[in-house]
Write a structure and sequence with these properties.
Length: 748
Amino acid sequence: MNLDREMSRYLVLDEESVRVALEKIDRNDEGVAVCVDTSGLLVGVLTDGDLRRWLVGQPLPNLDQPVGGIVNTSPRTARIDDDARRIESRFDQDVHLIPLLDDDGRCVAIARPRSALYALGDRTVGPGAPCLLIAEIGINHNGSLDLAFRMIDEAVEAGADCVKFQLRDLSSLYSNAGDASDHREDLGSQYTLDLLTRHQLTVDEMYRALDHCRDSGVIPLVTPWDEASMERLEEYGIDGYKTASADFTNHPFLRRLARTGKPLICSTGMTSHSEVRESVDLLISEGSQFALLHCNSTYPAPFKDVNLRYMETLREIGGCPTGYSSHDRGINVCVAAVALGADIIEKHFTLDKEMEGNDHRVSLLPGEFAALVTGIREVEEAKGSPGGRSLTQGEMMNRESLGKSLMVNMYLEPGTVIEEHMLDIRSPGRGLQPNRLAEVVGLPARRPLKPGDVLYPSDVSGASAVAREYSFDRPMGIPVRYHDLADLEPLSNFDFLEFHLSYKDLDVDESLFFDQPLDLDLVVHSPDLFEGDHLLDLSSPDPDYRAVSMRHLQRVVDLTRRLAPRFTKADRPLVVVSVGGFTQHAPADENEKEERYRRVADALATLDLDGVEVLPQTMPPFPWYFGGQRFMNLFIDPKEIAAFSREHGYRVCFDTSHSKLACTHHHWSFSEFVQTVAPHTAHLHLGDAAGVDGEGLQVMDGDIDWRMLSTELRKLAPDASFIPEIWQGHKNSGQGFWRALELLEPYF
């Protein structure tokens, strides 16, 4: 069990109102209020179920009546000195909170079932929560409060969640009252006492350091080495305690710490397996909320002696959060510990490894600690979860380009029974995978097929969306390429077509694809990738690279002007551009973004844009290009997008899939994003999204609230045109587009 001696979030006086009890139940997340009288005697317990039943039974419920009259006066209780395992056995699915009473019947604590999760400050610690990263300053401040402040600031900057110190009352801790000059002590003790005497913070200085932690947004934690120090920390109001390995067999002190009711993080170095079990039994018997850190208390610990797998044993023994307190060299072992399930990592921290004291030499510098944080967060993201496997966006793209499909090698009329010799297996992988061969053989062809045609799921199921005329409250089109223009354009009542160009399309003779002018408007989507693996980036800090990007974009604009006369309604065609701003290995520094936006504006101002309107496109956080995933930095934040539009006079292409991914990644409100960006929107790419990189999904297959989106766009961007931008929507004669338009029609 876990034991709460701080009971304010549960307790309500019997003379207080039902309304007060209701508020208490709502706030404590336990669904229970414990009712006592003014002397602390237990009156009863009120659960949210009790409260609902009382409300239903009252024709006119009076929430202002005393709560003592409606509580359950015979709740399940236990004595404070009862065995913890006996108390634990009394929990069931209906009872998850038991008041613990003293001999006089006063409620002195609350017992809850043990959990592998607990709260430390504002952080949840345990499985499923982000690893708690503790920067162990210890006494590495070398007795200087100013240095302690600097170390706290550097630890916060490096990404620490918690900063930990050590506090000792040398006069009560040492048998010689902390006399550093005692010639009778062994050399090791003399050295340690000498350091501690000179490198301690006073209690008042420790308080100021802890205040600085809280002011800096990091959890303060302290290892008290004696009861006098613990008492000073209790007076301060510390959130929890870290126990040193040296005290894990100090049962009286361990018991005293447990009885504070504060969460404990206990290192297990210098402790045998049987001693670990004994101390864990003590903590369980005291109802303590605790975590266990595997530790080898050698400075530095040789890699051969680390034995990270012992964390598994600690997890079994304690049924609690587990982690690793590191004294080894570097960061690799800590990162590995997180991969093995560590919930907490503690690592010594310093600003100078050459300072006096042996802890400095096994400590990390700020840059090293930052690298540790990065490595751990990357591993956490990569760990994933057991169970099924689904294709990622990047894998789907590579499966398309590198995989293989079932293709027809002869002309087949509808109804012809398909035989294996009629099929080839060839790249690219845009249709049925070769493992579907047995499903296809023996089926009648459902459509006319010619050599090179790819088979699709609809060739097996028969289910497919069919193009028709649609009714929308704004201009509607679809994305096309030159080669499918003739097949797709006649199929519906489009207002415009959006040409999604490849860089090779810039070199073909576009006249080959037009017999006569089309009574439509025109939109052109610039390639992102150009010959020579050049990704368009108008924000690049490299002027030569930026100049190449500008030349490529000018080619796109020039082509758009050549195409415009072939579209009778193309007065000023739109050109959609991903203007760049990506980085390859990590997000750009926030301080760089303003300059990057300025370079984009300067580049666009330099180009000849006569007769067209360039629309920067809103972007996802992790765009996929040929060559892999990048980090995107521009045209993600709605406030930055709106500011760019206002300052430079550019409207945008609002890609709903991209922007929903960005909102999910940054924990932004998508509705607020829409409200901010929609007034600056000329054109829409409508597609769904899932997670942070599930891009271009079919409408209704992702996380977007389409009713909210359509309502806001109707108010704020009523004239913006749109296409359904569904990944691989053009396959099978545009089947993905027709399905999307069917789904979008009720909303737009």
